[in-house]
Design goal:
The structure holds two protein chains of two kinds.
Chain A: H1 5-16, H2 19-44, H3 49-63, H4 67-82, H5 88-113, H6 117-125, H7 130-160, H8 172-183, H9 186-217
Chain B: E1 2-11, E2 14-24, E3 29-33, H1 40-47, E4 55-60, E5 63-64, H2 72-77, E6 79-82, H3 94-104, H4 110-123, H5 139-151, E7 157-161, H6 169-184, E8 188-192, H7 196-202, E9 205-210, E10 213-218, H8 220-225, H9 230-239
Parallel strand pairs in B: 3-8, 3-9, 6-7, 7-8
Antiparallel strand pairs in B: 1-2, 1-4, 4-5, 9-10
Classes of the chains: A mainly alpha, B alpha/beta.
Bound molecules: adenosine-5'-diphosphate and magnesium ion.
Amino acid sequence: MTYDLGVVRRYLPFLLNGIGITFRFTVVAFVLGAVLGLVVALGRIQRNPFMRLPCVWYTDFIRGTPLLAQIYLIHFGLPQVLGYKPVGWIDAMVALTINAGAYIAEIWRGAIESIDPGQMEAARSLGMTYSQAMRYVILPQSFKRAIPPLGNEFIALLKESCLVSVIGLEDLMMRANMMSGRSFRPFEAYFTVALIYLIMTLGFSRLVARLEGGLKRGRS
Amino acid sequence: MVEVRDLHKSFGDLEVLKGVNLDVKKGEVVVVIGPSGSGKSTMLRCINHLETPTKGHITIDGIRVDDPRTNINLVRQTVGMVFQHFNLFPHLTTLQNITLAPRKVLKMDANQAEEEGLALLAKVGLADKKDQYPDQLSGGQKQRVAIARALAMHPRLMLFDEPTSALDPEMIGEVLSVMKQLAIDGMTMIVVSHEMGFAREVADRVLFMDGGVFIEEAPPAEFFGNPKHERTKAFLSKVL
Ligand SMILES: Nc1ncnc2c1ncn2[C@@H]1O[C@H](COP(=O)(O)OP(=O)(O)O)[C@@H](O)[C@H]1O
Ligand SMILES: [Mg+2]
């Protein structure tokens, strides 16, 4: 077993060039997914079934099906019935965002439901509307509690984003495929790309841990 | 000022309130006592509609609280509530806890809200704690902030749900004295509490709740000196 450093050195800049796409997809899907997730979480905690049920169906469907199937559905499946023209990067972005939104919705919901019901009661007893109580009392506290699981979700998304390579986007993973094909050195290609993912996820885990530590020292 | 008529409240199959009647006049202080689980909290929570009554009427200042057409947020602006576990907002300083509702609900100007908030903190003896967060305060201090927070809305009625029962004994006095001052200032108050000293000294009437109804009511001297019902006697002999 050899790990040919020469090949690695030759292809490293080419591989690293994929970080940009991987990172952009991850960040955009995470941010849009966080907003979508918040809306869905707020819908899911309503008593009104017309607001709640669509949110339940959405999170259940997304969390119960593979991301790969979702990407194929949006890129190949739905264009057939809805008649839109498949565009790789848009479809990949939409699929990742919709996927992240479902997981993040459950994070927001967990955080909101972890807030003592007495907080809502105190806010309402002061004359606040439901929305005011949510906005000024419940959500600010929920955001802090959501930070650690959101950090984990970001890391998961960073890894899962490699699936956008299946519809031809030149992210890290796709570039590893290309490196493997051009150099005939699949081990160097896939082991190196795995190391690059590992370095990124470890880096983010440490960042999240530090953020968490900072929060624990600050106000709960 | 407050009229409760034939109030019933069930949770599923459990009927907690079984026909409560209560009249409280403006400026009156009534103290409600009774065994745990008898429905005291539920009754208070029906008065400001944190719970929806199953049956019966509640009127505050002529406004039907239980009428679905009533804007309950407007009613709650004038009814302050103090909880057993304080329920302060932990992400806000004491002053922010007090000014939040006046600013957002009454759209009060921030400077005026702060000015009034500081005056209220001074009134409850915590002027020096304005920038502290709730978790930096003792239980007694938290409850005094909670009272100030309710008063910031200029309520016409205050509801207290066992305000001192989560406190260490040495902190009970500071909260009761704030409440006593409030009573002296003429506030209408419904107080659920087992602080018999407070009831004797401050209450106009004491009511005994058991099994979801009031079974006895009297001015404090008579209530404690000469209780009529067996169950009242039994309860008093346990808590006194
Ligand atoms: N939200 C609720 N759901 C179901 N049961 C409740 C609820 N709130 C109160 N109860 C029940 O109602 C009864 C009366 O409670 P409560 O009004 O808190 O009594 P008290 O304040 O006199 O101790 C208790 O048996 C309690 O378990
Ligand atoms: Mg109670």
